[in-house]
Amino acid sequence: MDDKIVLTGVKPTGTPHLGNYIGALKSLIELSQNHKTVMFIADLHALNAEKDATKIKQHSYEVAALMIALGVNLENTILFRQSDVDAVYKLTEFLMNVTPKGLMNRAHSYKAMVEKNTEAGIDVDAGVNMGLYTYPVLMAADILLYNSDIVPVGKDQKQHVEFARDIAGYFNNVYGNVFRLPEPVISADAGIIPGLDGRKMSKSYDNTIPLFATESELKKKIMRIITDSKTPEESKDPDESTIFQIYKHFANENEIAEFRKMFIDGGMGYGTAKNILFEKINSVLAAPRAEYERLMANKPEIDAILNDGATRASVIANATVARVKKAMLG
Question: Alpha-carbon distance 44 to 25, whole Å?
Answer without folding.
Answer: 20
